# Entry
Amino acid sequence: MRPLFILLLLAVFLLLGSGDLSARWPGVSPGQLQAWLDTADPPLILDVRGRAAYRAGTLAGALDGGVEPSGFLPDGGGGLVLLLPEGASEQLVEAWFARLTDAGHQVWILEGGIAGWVEAGGSVEIPQSTYTRPGSVPFLIPRGLCEGGSPSQVFD
Amino acid sequence: MLTAVVRRPVTLPGIVGKHLSGFDLARVVVLFFFPLLACSETAYPPDESASCAACHPRQQAGFERSRMAVAARTETFLDEWRRKGEPKACLGCHSPSGSEGVICTDCHGANGHPYPALQVPEVCARCHDAPGEITLQGFLDSPAARRGEDCLTCHLQGSGNSHDFRGPTRPGFLQGIATLRMAFRHDAEGGVALLQIRHRAGHALPGGTTGRAVWLLVEQRDAQERMLDSRRYRFGWLHSASAGWRQNTLPPGTGRVLEIPLHEAAGVIRAKLVYRFRAGELDEVDPDQVVLVELARFVPTRAERER
# Structure
């Protein structure tokens, strides 16, 4: 009976520890973040879920901070919202907070992560890893609106 | 209509400093007082712009300071237009009524008083969502639109019925419009500079037609200031004879993020954002170009990173 009780207690602690991170760190709901992004002073979004997850789809304008807090050097200052991997440990979250707040950021966690964002109707984009460099083929720098006699967009 | 009527104050060459003959006096009466008389009636005189100025001098004076008033006369436009064989289609927006730019009735309609209230942004869309522009489309899905702002919030400042429309050619208009941020990421694949470009425009940057562009220049130098790597990125419209047009402007709100691999000897990285009006390469002279923002950061050493 006693080992079972200890096991249950341990399970409760584990659940509490890995569950609601925003109980210990400040969080921002998807709705709050959407409203914040529409202000004149929007936060920086730092995606720390790893390269593959970032490339598969992230919040528009998010930076890929990698997975190691020690490998990221912030630019400092302003509000920052962390997009964490699912099931991130407290130690990892603490390390990210320490890294970012030391650099001068005010940090929030996106509650519900990417799944919560999508569920709340937020859009996700595939980040563009490369940009067309001038002079590259096939796209050229246009000489103006009437290039080739074809308008870029037909007025509807 | 094409005439010179509109944009400059009426002058009376040959009259000033002379004794006025009966004929001259008649000219003065017609030129100066007819618009005022006409103003008191609902019928609209043929020279509508002169009459607008007679009753709305402040609005007319304000509008004359705008680029719209000379949209068909600017060097940037004329260069592009002549190079393309002076197509008439361009004049649909640059000179809708055959003047040297936009005139009152182009927006307010030609039905005379009382003019209907204009709907913004719809009235702007006629030209700013025309071929070569998606300014309005970009605005509709922007933070500015969601905040309840419209075109006039930025482009028409001033009290009352000001018509002093402002755009990027107005000195100081672009000041503080864009921000650059730079962070670094180091992992097993090496070091990367993460560069974020954001801007406060309520539409994609640059707005306006396909010739305009925002250029990003990024340089990496070593500790002795020797150039290690130099890159240029162009945000604007791209064109291909086979693939057509591709929109590559900076979207409002979220902006763009670029990842630039760090040279192993890089000591400093500098970035500069430049707004250009003239079509073509960055090396071509554009006397009106504006540096929006510049940024320099020292690349941290391994010891500094691990601190």
About this structure: The beta strands of chain A are 27-28, 44-47, 63-64, 72-73, 79-83, 106-110. The first helix of chain A runs from residue 2 to 18. Chain A touches chain B through 46 residues (CB under 8 Å). Chain A is about 35% helix and 15% strand.
